[in-house]
From TrEMBL, chain A:
<keyword id="KW-0746">Sphingolipid metabolism</keyword>
<dbReference type="GO" id="GO:0046513">
    <property type="term" value="P:ceramide biosynthetic process"/>
</dbReference>
<comment type="pathway">
    <text>Lipid metabolism; sphingolipid metabolism.</text>
</comment>
<comment type="subunit">
    <text>Heterodimer with LCB2. Component of the serine palmitoyltransferase (SPT) complex, composed of LCB1 and LCB2.</text>
</comment>
<dbReference type="GO" id="GO:0030170">
    <property type="term" value="F:pyridoxal phosphate binding"/>
</dbReference>
<keyword id="KW-0663">Pyridoxal phosphate</keyword>
<dbReference type="InterPro" id="IPR015424">
    <property type="entry name" value="PyrdxlP-dep_Trfase"/>
</dbReference>
<feature type="domain" description="Aminotransferase class I/classII large">
    <location>
        <begin position="112"/>
        <end position="470"/>
    </location>
</feature>
<dbReference type="Pfam" id="PF00155">
    <property type="entry name" value="Aminotran_1_2"/>
</dbReference>
TrEMBL record, chain B:
<dbReference type="GO" id="GO:0005789">
    <property type="term" value="C:endoplasmic reticulum membrane"/>
</dbReference>
<dbReference type="InterPro" id="IPR001917">
    <property type="entry name" value="Aminotrans_II_pyridoxalP_BS"/>
</dbReference>
<dbReference type="Pfam" id="PF00155">
    <property type="entry name" value="Aminotran_1_2"/>
</dbReference>
<protein>
    <recommendedName>
        <fullName>serine C-palmitoyltransferase</fullName>
        <ecNumber>2.3.1.50</ecNumber>
    </recommendedName>
</protein>
<dbReference type="GO" id="GO:0046513">
    <property type="term" value="P:ceramide biosynthetic process"/>
</dbReference>
<keyword id="KW-0012">Acyltransferase</keyword>
<dbReference type="GO" id="GO:0017059">
    <property type="term" value="C:serine palmitoyltransferase complex"/>
</dbReference>
<dbReference type="InterPro" id="IPR015424">
    <property type="entry name" value="PyrdxlP-dep_Trfase"/>
</dbReference>
<feature type="domain" description="Aminotransferase class I/classII large">
    <location>
        <begin position="101"/>
        <end position="460"/>
    </location>
</feature>
Length: 484, 488
């Protein structure tokens, strides 16, 4: 283009001179009734040159795909990272090994200890009736069910268990899952798809976070257990948003948060949900069989009618002393999961003996509601005895069976905090034979709540167990935390 | 691979088109009927909008009785199927108290450990009494018992790797492990027909996912070369690591993976391999050690081997076997290890006893007998079906054999007619398989006797004639040839 301009100018100059020379005689030329002036010829030639330049392709560097040899070289040069990062020095990897059932008293690494590390809230581990029903099941059905629910993996005990749980809770129907943790991360993607809105508490545990991530919906977190934050988030999302009526909207909360021991205020949540028209997914793993006059969960505890909660999920690995999980709700909710919940459709069903254990556990709870009173008095006693522990404070709700102890003053870094807490737990186990554990965090977990010592209180603990724990904890924490 | 003849494709498409048209017509009328009834509470969007659940409402519900059949006994070679009735045209089904004793061709019971076993069950009951049904605790807290440690060691020894880690459910094993191994900036290349748990795990990890053609090492090589040379999308930075995920036996095809070639390709391009042996561990191989043994691959060449205990060991749960460093890393960071209730102790004991039987460490040769029987049964059944003219997929030695049905009407016809003749089969349609390729899937077990198999073949042949699925010409029976010899 640069070189062309002077050429154009030169050409134009030449033509101007030539036409000037011809101007006089050409002034009288007439073509098709139009007077031809000399300048028309020049302009016509200029237009022709401009059109010629514009029609030429602009210069682009040619695209050359990589040759085979170049690809070979790149492949040879490429070095992958190792599959796992190197193990940090001094990381604790050995876990205590149990040699008997995980009841209130158990044998760890050869010696008898008081066990505060199992979520055996109703003390059903070792219960004779449950073990008998399991034995009957094992002899009749074997151990595994050898198939997913859709392909001959549905055994009549599964159907019995589902109807039993639905009757107990007072909901129309329920569905069983084969593993506690997979319940919530299969339920959430079954209902929430791309484009839906989910408002979740920021302290939910990993399985809920995984479910939220897999659902590909828009997730907005609100401050942990803070109802004002929830109200303002809901307000922001629905104000002026006319399309909000067509999108499905969910609130995801846990009844008792595993990471902090707080209890969600369900009456407030239901009031907000009805005001802003959201559906509620309630994760009740640690409150089913614990809260409420007869153990029916958070709804009974707050006196909220069960129909107002759209979806209730729970893992049965806690109060019911079995394995697996269930989800309960209206008939439409449950039927939808039978075909679109991946953890239900693509996985083998729950082993039948665990389903019969669940049925026996629910029967036991219905017949002996006094076990809940035992549990509650144990929790109250523990709170009273631990209220003056040096350096540690109880940060969980007074009714929560997970008693969460965290450091009064954090040292500043989470790793040193965790080290201190683990030292306390180790010493308590080694010196006083009381088995306690700290809360654990995976690096895939995005919850930012502080770590602490988690004590799982059971209805099977006696007063002397609790006294032993409190005196040991006070002594050890005084010695370990004296410098901080 | 499936070769779909044109006439079959046309008739199948026509059938689906007809079903779709009728479904739309019924939806149209349903809109009028529902005009007066307020189905949804005002202000809440419905759980499924419009066409999202069209397939379920209009196609699946018609043949709902072929799926989810409840049973009232152990899933052994013969079991009791509960009869169900419906008084609203299959929309809801109610169980009756009648049961039919049927031959079981659907459960994943490859080595026959499904029902009570003479060696395993007493030990399981003992461990139940000692440890009770659950530990109510996660593995890192108070959920590790001696049984768990024993099984981890035994599983590692059985598979041929230095160390192993256990999980309570096979599905969770895949979904929770893959995010621990790879994250953003990594690449996962998975087979196009991989199981849903692998897809979920890959999606949950945040890495980029690419798919290669089913069981094609050549296409895998092409994809690898393209991806390594191109780097991460848009930034073109080199990938942090690449993991290739394949399965041992693909459950809907019955095919074995082309493992030696795929391992060779991965080694050449320095990609890590992840082998999911859910269906093949315990069922194939001279001593039951899975596809590595069958195809002659050294377990040290596969970086991570995953398997489940549900199919061949009659229990529940899954495991990952790899080098000691990887297992230690997983024990510290895998969410399923840190947050999920540990595997139920009686189920752990069942797997320990089953592995001991297979290895012959229980003092008898029942394990070797079972392995020989399942190989014999699978090969016999497959060759007989092929001789009858059915289109059967899968390789020799694989205990899973799909029989192609194609047409949507043949699915309930085959399933219901077989049930009437007391044979229980599993039929699979969309979305587990591609739309046009519906099939019936047979799973052979070591507890099937020769008479059971002959009865099954007889029933399937008769039903196959009735329904019209013998797409290939049948081999003429040997008697006719002998007659021809005599008369000539």
């Amino acid at each position: 283009m640069d070189m062309a301009l002077p050429v154009v100018n030169a050409t134009a100059a030449v033509f101007a001179r030539v036409s000037a020379a011809f101007n006089a005689p050409l002034a009288r030329a007439v073509v098709f009734g139009v007077h031809i002036d000399g300048h028309l010829v020049v302009e016509g030639l200029l237009i022709a040159v401009i059109v010629f330049q514009l029609s030429r392709k602009s210069y682009k560097p040619p695209k050359k795909p990589l040759t085979e040899k170049e690809i070979d070289e790149l492949c040879d040069e490429w070095e992958p990272e190792p599959l796992c990062p190197p193990i940090k020095e001094g990381a604790r990897i050995d876990t205590p090994m149990l040699e008997s059932a995980a009841g209130p008293h158990t044998i760890v690494d050869g010696k008898e200890v008081v066990n505060f590390a199992s979520a055996n809230y109703l003390g059903l581990i070792g219960n004779e009736k449950i073990i008998d029903s399991c034995i009957g099941s094992l002899e009749k059905y074997g151990v595994g069910s050898c198939g997913p629910r859709g392909f001959y993996g549905t055994i009549d005990v599964h159907l019995d268990c589902e109807s039993k749980i639905a009757n107990f809770l007072g909901t129309p129907d329920s569905i069983l899952y084969s593993y506690g943790i997979s319940t919530i991360f299969s339920v959430i993607p079954a209902f929430c798809k791309k484009g839906d809105i989910i408002v979740a508490d920021e302290g939910v545990h990993w399985a809920v976070q995984n479910g939220l991530h897999l659902s590909r919906s828009t997730v907005v977190y609100f401050k942990h257990n803070d109802m004002a934050s929830l109200a303002s988030t809901l307000e922001k999302l629905t104000r002026g948003n006319k399309r909000a009526e067509k999108i499905r909207r969910y609130i995801v909360v846990e009844s008792i948060y595993q990471n902090s021991g707080q209890i969600a205020p369900l009456d407030e949540i239901v009031r907000l949900k009805e005001k802003y028209r959201f559906r509620v997914i309630l994760e009740e793993s640690h409150s089913f069989g614990v809260l409420g006059k007869s153990g029916r969960g958070l709804a009974e505890h707050y006196g909220v009618p069960i129909e107002k909660i759209d979806i209730i999920t729970a893992g049965m690995g806690n109060a019911l002393a079995t394995d697996g999980g269930f989800c309960s709700g209206s008939v439409r909710v449950v039927d939808h999961q039978r075909l679109s919940s991946s953890g239900y459709v693509f996985s083998a069903s729950l082993p039948p003996y665990l389903a019969s254990a669940a049925v026996s556990a629910v029967n036991y709870l219905e017949e002996n509601p006094s076990v809940l009173a035992n549990l509650r008095s144990n929790i109250a006693l523990l709170h009273k005895k631990l209220s003056d522990t040096p350096g540690l404070e109880i940060s969980s709700h007074v009714l929560s069976p997970i008693v969460f102890l965290k450091l009064n003053k954090s040292t500043g870094s989470p790793t040193t905090d965790l080290d201190l807490l683990e030292t306390i737990a180790d010493k308590v186990l080694k010196e006083d034979s009381v088995f306690i554990v700290t809360s654990k965090k995976s690096n895939l977990d995005r919850c930012k709540l502080p770590l602490g010592i988690r004590l799982f209180v059971s209805a099977g603990h006696t007063e002397s167990d609790i006294s032993r724990l409190s005196s040991s904890l006070k002594r050890v924490s005084a010695s370990v935390l004296s410098d901080y | 691979m499936v070769r779909l003849p044109y006439t079959t494709a046309l008739t199948t498409l026509f059938s689906y088109g007809l079903l779709f048209a009728f479904g739309q017509l019924r939806d149209f009328f349903r809109k009028f009927v529902d005009w007066f009834k307020a189905k949804n509470v005002k202000g809440y969007a419905p759980i499924c909008l419009g066409l999202e659940d069209f397939y379920v409402r209009r196609l699946y519900l018609r043949i709902q009785d072929c799926f989810g059949r409840p049973i009232a006994s152990a899933p052994d070679s013969w079991f009791d199927v509960v009869e169900r009735t419906s008084n609203d045209n299959n929309k809801t089904l109610q169980c009756t108290s009648n049961t039919t004793r049927c031959l079981n061709l659907g459960s994943y019971n490859y080595l026959g450990f499904a029902a009570a076993d003479e060696y395993c069950t007493p030990r399981v009951i003992e461990s139940l009494k000692k440890y009770s049904a659950s530990t109510c605790s996660v593995r890192v807290d108070g959920g590790t018992t001696k049984l768990h440690a024993e099984l981890e060691e035994l599983a590692a020894r059985f598979v041929g790797k230095p160390a192993a880690i256990l999980f309570g459910m096979g599905y969770v094993t895949n979904s929770a492990i893959i995010p621990c191994l790879i994250g953003k900036g990594g690449l996962i290349i998975s087979d196009s027909l991989n199981h849903n748990s692998i897809v979920n795990g890959a999606r949950g990890s945040g890495a980029t996912v690419r798919v290669f053609q089913h069981n094609s090492p050549a296409h895998l090589e092409e994809v690898l070369r393209e991806q390594i040379a191109g780097g991460q999308p848009r930034t073109h930075r080199p990938w942090k690591k690449i993991i290739v995920i394949v399965e041992g036996i693909y459950s809907m095809e019955g095919e074995l993976c082309k493992l030696p070639e795929i391992i060779a390709v991965c080694k050449k391009y320095k990609a890590y391999t992840y082998l999911d042996e859910a269906h093949s561990i315990g069922a194939v191989g001279q001593s039951g050690r899975g596809v590595c043994e069958l195809l002659g691959v050294d377990p040290a060449d596969v970086d991570i081997m995953m398997g489940t205990f549900t199919k061949s060991f009659g229990s529940c749960g899954g495991y990952i076997a790899a080098s000691k460093e990887i297992i230690q890393h997983l024990k510290q960071s895998c969410p399923a290890h840190l947050y999920a209730t540990s595997m139920s102790p009686p189920a752990v004991q069942q797997v320990i006893s089953a592995i001991k039987v297979i290895l012959g460490e229980d003092g008898s040769n029942r394990g070797a007998q079972k392995l020989a029987r399942i190989r014999e049964n699978s090969n016999f059944f497959r060759s007989e079906l092929k001789k009858m003219g059915f289109e059967v997929l899968g390789d020799n030695d694989s205990p899973v054999m799909p029989i192609m049905l194609y047409n949507p009407a043949k699915i309930p016809a085959f399933s219901r007619e077989c049930l009437r003749q007391k044979v229980a089969v599993v039929t699979v349609a969309f979305p587990a398989t591609p739309l046009l390729l519906a099939r019936a899937r047979i799973c052979i077990s070591a507890s099937h006797t020769r008479e059971d198999l002959m009865k099954a073949l007889d029933v399937i042949s008769r039903v196959g004639d009735l329904v019209g699925i013998k797409y290939f010409p049948a081999e003429p029976p040997k008697i006719a040839e002998a007659d021809a010899e005599i008369t000539s």
